[in-house]
């Protein structure tokens, strides 16, 4: 072993990253400011409750995530110090890649890289490459397109459309990023019925906004309808996540229709009625909307013979995206039959394990009513002062 190699053995993992891995990425054409992120924590760490005390578990953290564009991750690298083999970090990197929906996976100890290609179809899944042979951003992007089934230039244009950026530090959480990317990519590939299942409190409205924004800016969808069944959901969207749409957006109310807008928010009840003459959705042409997002789609629109389903049937040429925390599958109601299998699911359990949602406790309440029911005590009176009869 020469002196240089002996010296490398004494370096920490972080030194290996700084002196060998990052320079290798930059030499391959990766932009250090825009495309390379180091030590990326993508969960908050599970919340543990002990009586009145709370504590956080460890965050999941990737040594490197590489992005073709912001919020479009295409590769992950797990680094180890030089006392480990080049493949020592590959299993951890694969676990993270599975969670983050990333196709190209690498591990490194500073001597080179082990490349695990999740897109490989020829059996050549893993290979070792030198520090000077790391793939370029375009090479990795070609593999990402293969992984996602993006085959045409028009589909690529939609899939690479930028996220909305508000000038703050706010970025989507990893699962929101996956939900948005999978949906936009599916629509770019021609899919027109899409179901997203995301637990309550995980930001479905923010996901809907980013999906709409990207498709709208790409010119793929020009008129969009956001449907909900409660005023609070419409108001929260309009005043919160949807606010950047400004004067391009309107809320359908007072049973009035103005066709000069591009983004419409409406209650089901605001568009439909048991009185056929008041079904104002028919004031729009059947092809007016390109995209309809149905919030809480497990409610009325999930039932095939519901009046609300008639709205979706009327606008059947549009792409329909269903959002729900609790998809319904019964004899008469089926989200999956209408939308297909969920394109992405982020469960309550995942949210708790990741630390984005607080854990809960089930509290059982025991009533003082036995199996035979309640009996009034002797002399028990009701509000008018009359004695309550002890009926059998």
**Level-2 CATH architecture of the largest domain:** 3-Layer(aba) Sandwich
Strand content: 15-25%
Low-confidence stretches: none
Number of distinct helices: 12
CATH class of the largest domain: Alpha Beta
Lateral arrangement of strands in the main beta sheet: 11-12-10-13-14-9-15
Q: Give the overall silhouette.
A: globular
H and E string = HHEEEEEHEEEHHHEHEHEEHEHEHEH
Q: Please, could you describe this protein's structure?
A:
The protein is built from twelve helices and 15 strands. Helix content is 29%, strand content 20%. A hairpin with a 2-residue loop joins strand 2 and strand 3. Helix 5 runs antiparallel to helix 6. The chain has helices at 3-9, 13-27, 90-100, 137-148, 153-159, 174-188, 204-217, 231-239, 268-271, 307-314, 335-339, 348-354, and strands at 36-41, 47-50, 53-56, 61-69, 72-79, 104-108, 112-117, 126-130, 193-198, 224-228, 249-251, 263-267, 291-294, 319-324, 344-346. The mean pLDDT is 89. A seven-stranded parallel beta sheet has the order 11-12-10-13-14-9-15. A six-stranded mixed beta sheet has the order 1-4-5-6-7-8, sandwiched between helices. The chain is an alpha/beta fold. The protein has two domains: 3-148, tt1808, chain A; 153-354, P-loop containing nucleotide triphosphate hydrolases (Rossmann fold), CATH 3.40.50.300. The relative contact order is 0.10.
Short descriptors:
15 strands; tt1808, chain A; Rossmann fold; alpha/beta; 392 residues; seven-stranded parallel β-sheet; 2 domains; 12 helices; 20% strand; 29% helix
């Amino acid at each position: 072993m020469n002196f240089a190699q002996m010296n490398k053995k004494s370096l920490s993992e972080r030194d290996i990253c700084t002196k060998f891995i990052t320079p290798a990425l930059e030499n391959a054409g990766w932009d250090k400011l825009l495309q390379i992120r180091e030590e990326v924590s993508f969960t908050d760490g599970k919340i543990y409750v002990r009586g009145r005390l709370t504590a956080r578990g460890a965050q999941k953290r990737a040594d490197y995530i590489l992005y073709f564009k912001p919020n479009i991750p295409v590769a992950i690298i797990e680094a180890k110090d030089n006392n480990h083999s080049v493949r020592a970090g590959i299993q951890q990197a694969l676990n993270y890649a599975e969670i983050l929906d990333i196709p190209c996976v690498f591990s490194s100890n500073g001597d080179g890289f082990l490349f695990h290609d999740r897109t490989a179809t020829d059996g050549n899944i893993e290979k070792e490459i030198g520090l000077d042979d790391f793939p370029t951003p375009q090479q990795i992007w070609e593999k990402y397109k293969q992984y996602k089934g993006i085959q045409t230039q028009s589909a690529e244009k939609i899939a690479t459309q930028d996220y909305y950026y508000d000038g703050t530090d706010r970025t989507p959480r990893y699962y929101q990023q996956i939900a948005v990317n999978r949906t936009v990519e599916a629509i770019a590939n021609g899919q027109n019925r899409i179901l997203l299942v995301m637990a309550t409190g995980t930001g479905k409205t923010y996901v809907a906004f980013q999906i709409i924004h990207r498709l709208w800016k790409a010119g793929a969808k020009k008129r969009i309808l956001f449907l909900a069944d409660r005023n609070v959901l419409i108001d929260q969207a309009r005043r919160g996540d949807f606010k950047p749409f400004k004067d391009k957006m309107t809320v359908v109310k007072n049973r009035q229709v103005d066709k000069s807008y591009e983004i419409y928010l409406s209650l089901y009840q605001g568009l439909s009625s048991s009185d056929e003459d008041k079904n104002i959705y028919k004031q729009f042409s059947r092809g007016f909307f390109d995209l309809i997002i149905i919030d809480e789609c497990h409610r009325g629109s999930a039932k095939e013979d519901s009046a609300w389903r008639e709205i979706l049937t009327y606008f059947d040429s549009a792409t329909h995206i269903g959002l729900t925390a609790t998809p319904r599958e019964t004899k008469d109601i089926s989200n999956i039959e209408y939308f297909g299998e969920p394109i992405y699911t982020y469960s309550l359990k995942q949210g708790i394990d990741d630390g984005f949602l607080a854990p809960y406790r089930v509290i059982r309440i025991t009533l003082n009513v036995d199996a035979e029911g309640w009996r009034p005590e002797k002399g028990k009176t009701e509000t008018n002062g009359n004695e309550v009869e002890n009926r059998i």
